[in-house]
């Protein structure tokens, strides 16, 4: 087992029923549109895996194939040792939670939560006890007699979660379950969900387009673009070591700064920028990347390059300074007491070891480092 998987096994509190979920070379087209391309994922028992990517990249389609709600064109899905690729959804032993809570409007909270057990023919007493247990997990035990219309969005989503919990599935599959909630409730429910998943130790695949959700919830994140897996790693790995331009630009808020230029000999050059490189050298269109929190605003001539202040915004905890350098727009996070006038000339400095170089045309990270002195 590699160290990553080990870290996850230790991080994940794998419950007794938790199973490994193995997705191999999954493909799916709708007509002539190939939406999931050769997707492989090996998800450890009890792991919280987040499938992250922009709208339309194929996240929901991938999750629906794992759930059995969508047929696969090619590829296989195993839950534990069982091949479930052709198994009907109800026999897969997975529970899906949708963005729209999908509650039965004419059933009470208790009836909604208990429904999966009722279908299985579990007797009343046992079902009542299980409903109470599951409701307690999501702090809904006092609202069991209400109807969905009498609940807030957050409470409805809790009911949907409890209905998934009560089945004691081998895996949870969640499709943007928090996206209908307002920002404050979303943050709160995120923490609850993380705690709940830890307590239950159920293997979880969680789909979102929100990189903050992915960073905060995941043991590991799988980043998709146009149906292709771009990188799979812990949140720290993908943030600190992005494999390509797409991942670098997708993780982080505000996003990583990019400056397009050229590698010429052993230097990176762009308008007003000339930074030496170590490592192998080749001529290429390259993009320099550095994160807003790694850089600072200094006096003109004191940084790697100069620019002009476009705006400075105090967000409360920090000041976000936006600068222009020719065609480039750069954002830098400065302390909250930092003040600067619009249009002033400034320097931009970042520790070179925290800068990245990417191949502008094809996207991968270049195996080259910026050198410390000019
Ligand atoms: N049943 C379908 N028939 C035809 N095309 C579909 C179908 N379902 C999805 N698609 C297309 O497949 C692509 C991927 O859709 P999918 O719903 O998986 O994306 P997503 O990553 O979940 O996006 P979002 O973040 O917006 O939910 C989209 O281009 C979508 O239009
Ligand atoms: Mg979707």
Care to give the gist of this entry?
The chain is built from nine helices and 21 strands. It is α+β, with helices and mostly antiparallel strands and 374 residues long.
Main beta sheet: 6 strands, mixed
Radius of gyration: 24 Å
Distance between the termini: 43 Å
The first-level CATH class name of the largest domain: Alpha Beta
What does this structure look like?
The protein is an alpha+beta fold. It has two domains: 3-246, Rossmann fold (3-Layer(aba) Sandwich), CATH 3.40.50; 259-370, Nucleic acid-binding proteins (OB fold (Dihydrolipoamide Acetyltransferase, E2P), Beta Barrel), CATH 2.40.50. It has helices at residues 3-11, 59-67, 109-120, 124-137, 153-165, 183-200, 211-217, 235-240, 245-250, and strands spanning 21-30, 33-43, 48-52, 74-79, 82-83, 94-97, 171-175, 203-208, 220-225, 228-233, 257-264, 267-270, 273-278, 284-290, 296-298, 305-314, 318-325, 328-335, 345-349, 356-359, 369-370. It has a six-stranded mixed β-sheet with strand order 6-7-8-3-9-10, sandwiched between helices. It has a six-stranded antiparallel β-sheet with strand order 20-14-11-12-13-21. It has a five-stranded antiparallel β-sheet with strand order 15-19-16-17-18, with no helix packed on it. Helix 3 (109-120) packs across helix 4, helix 3 packs parallel to helix 5 and helix 4 packs across helix 5 (153-165). Residues 1-11 have low confidence and may be disordered. Bound molecules: adenosine-5'-triphosphate (ATP) and magnesium ion. Residues 59-60 line the site of magnesium ion.
